[in-house]
Design goal:
This protein is of the alpha/beta class. It is 39% helix and 22% strand. The strands form 7 sheets. Strands 1, 2, 3, 6, 14, 15 and 16 form a 7-stranded mixed beta sheet that branches. Strands 19-20-18-17-23-24-25 form a 7-stranded mixed beta sheet. Strands 4-5-8 form a 3-stranded antiparallel beta sheet. A hairpin with a 6-residue loop joins strand 19 and strand 20. Helix 10 crosses helix 16. It is globular, with a radius of gyration of 22 Å. Keywords: ATP-binding, Carbohydrate metabolism, Kinase, Nucleotide-binding, Transferase, Xylose metabolism. Its EC number is 2.7.1.17. This is Xylulose kinase. It catalyses: D-xylulose + ATP = D-xylulose 5-phosphate + ADP + H(+).
């Protein structure tokens, strides 16, 4: 009788539960949305009970499909950099502050005043900002002291669900590394960060392996979820790290490039990659013994979506974008040329993280003439995203990372022209797998399978992935792009002073 893995991906907009069999085949998935509460003070919160409801509902749906006793393990991918305070009974004391909550700039500034930024970077793997769990927990202490006092543990999204299923208060290295409270060199909570921040280390959960069995489904949780009592629960990891595994980033030599609303590049490395100007950052990978250096830009696919909606009339919803307009846009981009006939686009529509770390950076078209066409502008958007990602890629290469090829995932990877543009800009083979938006679920599933002995190691991801496309760079195009990349950088630097005044 077949055994199955149930992987939950707790995202920002909802939970996606996916069943895989032991051969890596996707059997069925179910999605359950939940609310995001955004305030005028840069707050972004979610109700943890909504997460649990979503997990219960989707688990019930999928357990019926194969019989709950045939599910060998439940594992997780979850949104990172959050802060949920719970009491000793695991009851949430307030809504969770999620990764998008940016009201904690005062706390971030405090850390910057009391700890050298480069020392912080080399300790945690991250450049300090208001997006991390560290400053969120400090904000709660400073603004809601009773809640902080009554906090038994601070958890991330998947860690809370693991508690609800098993009664265990635990996390694992990938999510812990997203808090900016982990010493990336020891994979233990940092005493130095606790000292500078004034936070209580006892309020942080125990750290176990990403492939460890955190516990087993309790009788109470079994009744709520439809899962069999005693089913193994394996931690899994943070969503970015699970996505890396799900796209095959389980050893050195391969990088992944995600073209979602935001876009990023990550690589597997035995040691952290510390960029000289702190342009990139590092997570602990869910693959034991590996670090996951990353660089994330704010708008990748989001920049293209913005351009399409503003340059093509008649778009009412995502279906229109995917269908009627898509073919027209593709044809027009194909009629342009490599380098977009001299049009450049800076894709900084909401500021930028990697590699700029400049909240004041703006989106810019340059090089427009009376001869410029809509297709040139659309191609310039695709190329501009590619130039920015290439800067991140070269930071990794210049710091010793071996990158032989890139795996392209995310919704934007469906765009065949964009595949080729990126391939030529990167001047490296770009591979497109069969599942473009299931990488996080697949990574969590492999972690679960390794955890219960179904798979020997993370190389089992090869069972899940088939290659749909392999793009090989055109050397002539790559040469043209090398000149355009220099112009892209010069354009940003020339406008940087102007951005400061806007």
């Amino acid at each position: 009788m077949k055994r199955y893995i149930l992987a939950h991906d707790l995202g920002t907009s909802g939970n996606k539960a996916t069943l895989f069999d032991e051969d890596g085949k996707l059997v069925k998935s179910a999605v359950y949305p939940y609310e995001l509460y955004v305030g005028t003070n840069n707050s972004a919160e979610q109700n943890a009970d909504d997460w649990w409801e979503a997990v219960c509902e989707t688990s019930r749906q999928l357990a019926v499909e194969v019989g709950n006793k045939n599910i060998a393990v439940v594992s997780f991918s979850g949104q990172m950099m959050g802060c949920l305070c719970v009491d000793k009974c695991g009851k949430p004391l307030r809504n969770a502050m999620i990764w998008a909550d940016m009201r904690t700039t005062k706390q971030a500034d405090y850390i910057k005043k009391h700890m050298d930024e480069k020392e912080f970077y080399k300790l945690t793997g991250h450049r300090l900002s208001a997006s991390y769990s560290l400053t969120k927990l400090m904000w709660i202490r400073d603004n809601q002291p009773k809640i902080y006092e009554n906090t038994y543990k601070m958890l991330n999204a998947k860690d809370y669900i693991i508690y609800k299923l098993t009664g265990s208060f635990v996390t694992e290295p990938s999510d812990a590394s997203s808090t900016c409270m982990l010493d990336l060199n020891t994979l233990m909570w940092s005493d130095d960060i606790m000292r500078v921040s004034g936070l209580d280390k006892d309020k942080l959960p125990d750290i176990i392996s990403s492939v460890a069995i955190a516990g087993r489904v309790s009788s109470r949780a079994a009744k709520e979820t439809g899962l069999a009592e005693g089913t193994a629960v394996v931690c899994g990891g943070g969503d970015g790290c699970c996505a890396a595994v799900g796209s095959g980033i389980v050893q050195a030599g391969v990088a992944n490039c995600c073209l979602g609303t935001s876009s990023w590049i990550s690589v597997a490395s035995k040691i952290p990659i510390y960029a000289e100007n702190m342009e990139t950052f590092n997570f602990a990978h869910i693959v034991p013994g590996y670090i996951l250096p990353c660089g994330t830009m704010q708008t990748g696919g989001g920049a293209l979506g913005w351009a399409v909606k503003n340059m093509y009339s008649g778009i009412n919803d995502q279906t229109d974008l995917d269908n009627a307009i898509y073919e027209t846009m593709q044809n027009e981009v194909e009629c342009s040329s490599v380098g977009a006939n001299g049009v450049l686009f800076l894709p900084y529509l909401i500021g930028e993280r990697s590699p700029r770390w400049n909240t004041k950076a703006k989106g810019v078209f340059s090089g427009l003439t009376l001869n410029s066409k809509r297709g040139d502008m659309m191609r310039a958007v695709m190329e501009g995203v590619g130039y920015n990602l290439d800067i991140i890629l070269n930071i990794f290469k210049n710091n010793g990372a071996r990158i032989d090829e890139l795996i392209l995932i995310g919704g934007g990877a469906r765009n065949k022209i964009w595949q080729k543009i990126l391939c030529d800009i990167f001047n490296a083979p770009v591979i497109v797998p069969n599942y473009l938006e299931e990488a996080t679920s697949m990574g969590a599933a492999v972690a679960g399978g390794v955890g219960v002995g179904m798979f020997e190691d993370f190389n089992a991801i090869s069972k899940f992935i088939d290659i749909n496309e392999k793009n090989i760079p055109d050397l002539t195009n790559a040469h043209i792009y090398s000149k355009m990349k220099e112009l892209f950088e010069n354009t940003y630097q020339a406008l940087n002073e102007i951005f400061e005044k806007m």
